[in-house]
Task: inverse folding
């Protein structure tokens, strides 16, 4: 557990061990997620990636695209790429 103090402006310093764990660097954006009275901090880019995954999953489900369909298409693309490299 790490502890940090809130400044008069409501700012908190993220302890170095946590910054290292999350691979946060100067200028990175973080997101705060509240869940039933608990707050989780994570890289904002991870939130954007999760939202994209959810959106793609929803669209695929609406169009009836299955995981097996995606795996089959991936195999076709891999084969095409392999054939391109051999040229």
Result:
């Amino acid at each position: 557990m790490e502890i940090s103090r809130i400044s008069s402006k409501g700012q908190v310093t993220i302890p170095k061990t946590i910054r290292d764990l999350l691979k946060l660097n100067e200028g990175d954006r973080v997101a705060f997620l509240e869940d039933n009275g608990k707050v989780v901090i994570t890289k904002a880019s991870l939130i954007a990636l999760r939202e994209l995954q959810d959106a793609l999953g929803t669209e695929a489900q609406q169009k009836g695209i299955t995981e097996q369909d995606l795996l089959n298409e991936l195999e076709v693309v891999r084969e095409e790429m392999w054939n391109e490299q051999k040229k």
Summary: The mean pLDDT is 89.
